[in-house]
Amino acid sequence: MSPHLQIWRWHVTMLGSILHRATGVASVAGAIAVTAWLVCLALGPTTYDVFLTYARSPLGLLVWFGLSLAGFVHLTGGLRHMIWDLGGALQPKTASTLTTWSLIAGV
Fold this sequence. Notes:
mainly alpha
């Protein structure tokens, strides 16, 4: 265990970092889902109808909503990182404020 874990306290930039990584992984899953959609579209009407049956189900709609949410949260997290890379908002208070606003804007 790292020695810094005993003295480190939780803050919003840690949450932003974790969510940025998780939404990046979810965005890859979304890319796979969109690829499956395109493949089913190319295979013909029967296959596409089967895909739409699953995509229009309550679970499918929840998945599409989650993928959209992940995409927006990842986008705003990327913009936050771009601001940091340009040297802005690096003080702890402004970094926390920027992270909070990026999470709000993503949702």
